[in-house]
Design a protein that fits this description.
Helix 1 packs antiparallel against helix 2 and helix 7 packs across helix 9. This protein has about 260 residues and is an alpha+beta fold. The longest helix has 27 residues. Helix content is about 40%, strand content about 20%. The radius of gyration is 20 Å and the shape is globular. The strands form three sheets. The chain has a three-stranded antiparallel beta sheet, sandwiched between helices. A two-stranded antiparallel sheet has the order 4-5. It has one domain: 2-Layer Sandwich (Nucleotidyltransferase, domain 5), CATH 3.30.420.10.
Length: about 260
């Protein structure tokens, strides 16, 4: 189950944040003054908020979630984008809703199965709902999964069972992170999805007007490319951008599964 999210800041500027949520503004000020400014001294606080604020679930919001599912060898991709983040998250969570009446039956088309799982904390087995699918993404363990979980909680929603719980070790979570697999433990800066794709001869998913830190500028019409666009048009562009990552993840996975044997 390939998954990718796109995020922007909750408000267009730091001034708007202060006007609408002064308590959250104070939290951001504390973060900036006590940690962020050490690494980004050349930026003003407003510049940092616009460029980096969306990376933090406390100050950002999800504007699109794209999902790709492989069935019978075919990839189907669908997306959720909604101006109301809570509605967006609800729609996303609903696709993982388990059929409680079928949990004791193992079916190929069922999302979940109930299984007894050993707990190292209590030293005994407990019933646990396990998904038949693995969430797959690039840097998904460190970014997408905790971001979705936090935004669900902040919107008063219980994260779906497929979202791994925070207390689990990295290797115990039901997800596949392409960054971890291909990076193979290298202690370097996080390698990007596009860098992997380009080196594998796969189309670069980040080759358009929308990319990374510019997403907020595009969303809030601070770029020439989006100034005269309607909100619906902007959301459609962001959706297409998000879905390109799903196709890249699928192609990277196929590439990795079909490497030539070297020994």
């Amino acid at each position: 189950m390939f998954t990718d999210i796109e995020t922007v800041t909750q408000y267009e500027s730091l001034e708007e944040l202060k006007k609408n949520n002064e308590a959250l503004y104070d939290c951001f000020q504390y973060k900036v003054n006590n940690w962020i400014r050490r690494e980004y001294k050349e930026m003003t606080q407003d510049e940092y908020y616009k460029q980096m604020g969306a990376l933090y679930a406390e100050y950002g919001k999800i504007v699109c979630i794209s999902v790709g599912r492989v069935k019978n060898g075919e990839l189907s991709v669908f997306s959720f984008n909604d101006e109301d983040e809570k509605n967006l998250l609800k729609k996303f969570c609903e696709i993982f809703k388990p059929d409680m009446g079928k949990l004791d039956k193992i079916g190929r088309d069922n999302w979940y199965e109930k299984r007894m799982v050993w707990s190292k904390h209590t030293k005994r087995e407990h019933p646990q709902i396990l998904s038949h699918y693995y969430l797959t993404g690039h840097n998904i363990i460190s970014f997408d999964i905790p971001y979705i979980s936090k935004r669900c909680i902040f919107n008063g929603l219980m994260p779906p069972p497929i979202i791994p719980k925070g207390h689990l070790n990295r290797w115990e979570k039901q997800c596949i992170d392409t960054r971890d697999i291909i990076n193979n433990g290298a202690g370097m800066a996080n390698p990007s999805l596009e860098a992997f794709a380009v080196n594998m001869g796969i189309d670069n998913p980040k080759d358009g007007d929308v990319s990374g830190r510019k997403l907020g500028d595009y969303y809030y019409k601070r770029m020439d490319a989006s100034k005269n666009m309607t909100r619906q048009q902007i959301n459609e562009v962001i959706k297409n951008y998000c879905e390109k990552d799903i196709y890249a993840l699928y192609n990277i996975t196929n590439y990795s599964n079909n490497l030539e044997l070297s020994w």
